Amino acid sequence: DYVDQANPQSTRSASAQPKESQPLVAVVMGSDSDLPVLQPGLAILNKFHIPHTVRITSAHRTPTWMASYASAAASQGLKCIIAAAGGAAHLPGMAAAHTPLPVIGVPVKPTIGDGLDSLLSICNMPKGVPVATVSVNNSINAALLAVRMLGMSDPGMRRRYEEYMVESEREVREKDTRLAE
Ligand code: RP5
């Protein structure tokens, strides 16, 4: 569920996931302004039927909540965290500091600039605290990386990923064929 931290009582679904599913992936963001960037990644998680939860856990505006959420994530049964933030993008790194789970960082392009600041803020972590960082606004790759991680212990998931690869290749080959005609 998507929970607006300014109004936690008002919950609306951003992912259309069945309520009864145990979330395996947490998708967290620094602000609800990041949500549009995350929607393509959420579509990937839905395509692979991955139960997930979507939350706002700002490293700056809700630091205590962010730390408690990341600290509890592993014991909640989550398997990985996708964390998106822009500008002074501290959320992915701070989440990684509070959890042993793999954290995938999505740099969000800020209003000013091309997003290089977000990218470097997320990937330039000190040794010992890794964040797997995708390119600016690339929530699709973040979600696909999460699928690959889950596929390590879920043969069905890995099979669906292999089917996705075949499907992707077929799409490109069809485009190539049309161009060559
Ligand atoms: C970051 O600041 C958020 O991740 C967002 O990308 C950026 C701007 O937030 P808003 O001012 O739009 O809420 O913490």
TrEMBL record:
Family classification: In the C-terminal section; belongs to the AIR carboxylase family. Class I subfamily.
Name of this chain's protein: Phosphoribosylaminoimidazole carboxylase
Organism whose genome encodes this protein: Salinomyces thailandicus
